[in-house]
Design a protein that fits this description.
Number of domains: 2
Helix content: 25-40%
Strand order of the largest sheet: 1-2-6-3-7-16
Order of helices and strands: HHHEEEEEHEHHEEEHEEEEHEHEHEEEH
Number of helices: 11
Mean pLDDT: 93
Shape: elongated
Structural class: alpha+beta
Low-confidence stretches: 1-24
CATH topology of the largest domain: Aminopeptidase
Bound molecules: zinc ion
Radius of gyration: 26 Å
Length: 434
C-alpha cells in the first residue's frame, strides 16, 4: 500500500464516519417533548383543519376570508401571540390579512407565511371537508389551509413546552394569495414590512413531495404587443406604398422571439392570445375578443398578450431588452409597440436559502424522515414568499402534501401531516436557538 492509498483510505474513513454521526444525532430533551406534544395534538389538528376548510374563503368572499382569519386569531391568542386583522383600503378590493406575533430577541427572527383564501368561491360546488382513509378532501385543504394548520400546531407544541420565550416569530396569513389585490405596493406592504424585521421566511405552500423543499422559484410577468399596418387592397402587399401589413409584422416579431430570446435556463415566455385583421376588439380583463379581416385586405392591426417567467431580475431585464430590440426592426409600413407589467418577483437560489435547506435536512435526518432536496425552480409556480425573497433567506413548500390543487378534486395526505408538523416545529425551534 503506498502513501496516497493510505491517505485516501483514512479520508474515506473520516468521510464515511461524519454523515453517520450526523444522522444518528440524538434529539434533545426539549425536542423530544415537542414531538410528543405534536403526537398528542394530532387529532385536534385534523378537527381544526375540518373546521377551517368548511368555512368558504374564496378570495372574493371577503367575509369568509376574514372569518377564517378570526378562527386562527382565537388559536394564536391562546398561545399568547399578539394578533391583528389588517383591513385593505377599499381600492384593493380584498378582505385583508391576519398577522400574529411573538415578540422577543433570541436567535433568528422568523416570518411564517400562509394564506387564508382559496380559489373556490361561494358558488363553487366544492365546499365540504371529508375523509376517506388517509386522504382528506376539501376546498383549500392542501392549498393551503393544511399548511396554516401545520404552522399553528408546530407553534402550539413549542408554546406548550415553554419554548417560545423571547423569540421573535411573525405569522403572516394573507387573504388574497390566489388573486393578489392591486396595487401590490398596498396589498403586499405588511408582508414585506414583516420580512424587513426578520432574518428568515418560511413558506407553507403545498409541498412538492415529502423529500423536497423550494429554495428558488421563478417570477412571472406579462407583456402585450400591439402592431399596426397599412390597410389596403391585398394586390398591393409588398409594394413600396403598402408594405407588409400587421399580421406579417406580428409573425416576424413572434418568430424572432422564439429564435433569438429563447434558450436561457429557466427563462420562458408564452404568447397566450393573438388577434389580427382589419378590425379587432379585445377585452383585456376577460382575455377575449373578436377579429374581422378578409383575404383581399392587408391587415391593419394585431394584438398579442403573453407571459414571461424568469429566475432573476437580471434575466427578466435581459429578455425584455432583447424583445424591445426585435420589436423596433419593423417591416415596411408597419409599427409595433411592446409593453411589460410586473406581477411576481423571482426567488433566487441564494446561499442563505441553501443553508436553510441544509438545516431542514438535518432536522429530517434526526427524525429519520430522509433527505430533503431542492425542488426544480422551473416547475414551481409563483407565491407570496417571492415578495420577501429580496429581504430574507427563504424556504417554501413546507406545507402539506396532496393532489389536485385548484380543482374540485383537491386532496391532502393525512399520513404525512403529523410528520411534516414535527419537521416544521423542530426547524423553528432550532432557528430560534441559533
Ligand atoms: Zn397557495
Amino acid at each position: 500500500m503506498n502513501l496516497s492509498v493510505i491517505i485516501t483510505a483514512v479520508y474515506s474513513f473520516i468521510f464515511f464516519l461524519t454523515p453517520v454521526q450526523m444522522s444518528s444525532q440524538e434529539l434533545s430533551k426539549s425536542e423530544k417533548k415537542i414531538i410528543k406534544t405534536i403526537e398528542k395534538n394530532h387529532q385536534f389538528a385534523i378537527q381544526f383543519l375540518e373546521k377551517v376548510v368548511n368555512i368558504n374563503s374564496g378570495t372574493m368572499n371577503h367575509e369568509g376570508v376574514k372569518e377564517v382569519g378570526m378562527v386562527f386569531k382565537k388559536q394564536f391568542e391562546a398561545i399568547d401571540f399578539d394578533t391583528r386583522w389588517i383591513d385593505m383600503p377599499k381600492e384593493v378590493n380584498r378582505a385583508g390579512h391576519f398577522f400574529a406575533e411573538n415578540k422577543g430577541a433570541k436567535g433568528k427572527k422568523i416570518v411564517l407565511i400562509g394564506h387564508l383564501d382559496t380559489v373556490f368561491e361561494k358558488d363553487s360546488p366544492f365546499q365540504e371537508f371529508s375523509i376517506d382513509g388517509d386522504i382528506a378532501y376539501g376546498p383549500g385543504v392542501n392549498d393551503m389551509k393544511g399548511g396554516n394548520v401545520v404552522v399553528l400546531y408546530a407553534l402550539k407544541a413549542l408554546h406548550e413546552n415553554n419554548l417560545l420565550n423571547d423569540s421573535q416569530i411573525i405569522v403572516a396569513f394573507t387573504g388574497d394569495e390566489e388573486s393578489t389585490g392591486k396595487p401590490l405596493e398596498l396589498s403586499r406592504k405588511d408582508l414585506i414590512d414583516a420580512a424587513k424585521r426578520s432574518d428568515i421566511a418560511l413558506g407553507f405552500e403545498t409541498s412538492t413531495g415529502f423529500n423536497y423543499a423550494t429554495v428558488a422559484r421563478r417570477g412571472s410577468s406579462g407583456w402585450e404587443l400591439e402592431v399596426s399596418g397599412k390597410r389596403a387592397h391585398s394586390s398591393g402587399i409588398f409594394n413600396k406604398q403598402i408594405g407588409a401589413g400587421a399580421i406579417f409584422e406580428g409573425s416576424r416579431i413572434l418568430n424572432a422571439f422564439y429564435n433569438q430570446v429563447k434558450g436561457e435556463e429557466f427563462l420562458t415566455f408564452n404568447p397566450g392570445v393573438i388577434l389580427g385583421g382589419t378590425d379587432i376588439e379585445f377585452d383585456k380583463e376577460q382575455n377575449e375578443g373578436e377579429a374581422f379581416g378578409k383575404n383581399n385586405v392587408v391587415a391593419q392591426t394585431l394584438i398579442v398578450k403573453g407571459g414571461l417567467r424568469f429566475i432573476s431580475e437580471e434575466q427578466k431585464e435581459r429578455a425584455r431588452s432583447k424583445m424591445r430590440e426585435i420589436v423596433k426592426k419593423n417591416l415596411p409600413h408597419t409599427t409595433a409597440k411592446i409593453t411589460f407589467n410586473d406581477s411576481y418577483p423571482a426567488m433566487q437560489p441564494t446561499d442563505g436559502n441553501h443553508k436553510l435547506l441544509a438545516l431542514l435536512n438535518g432536522v429530517s435526518a434526526d427524525l429519520n424522515q430522509g433527505e430533503v432536496l431542492a425542488y426544480d425552480p422551473g416547475k414551481r409556480g409563483a407565491a407570496d414568499t417571492s415578495f420577501v425573497a429580496d429581504y430574507v433567506d427563504c424556504l417554501d413548500g413546507l406545507g402539506t402534501m396532496g393532489t389536485g390543487a385548484h380543482t374540485p378534486k383537491e386532496t391532502m395526505d393525512l399520513s404525512t401531516f403529523e410528520a411534516l408538523t414535527k419537521r416544521t416545529a423542530l426547524l423553528i425551534y432550532r432557528l430560534i436557538n441559533l
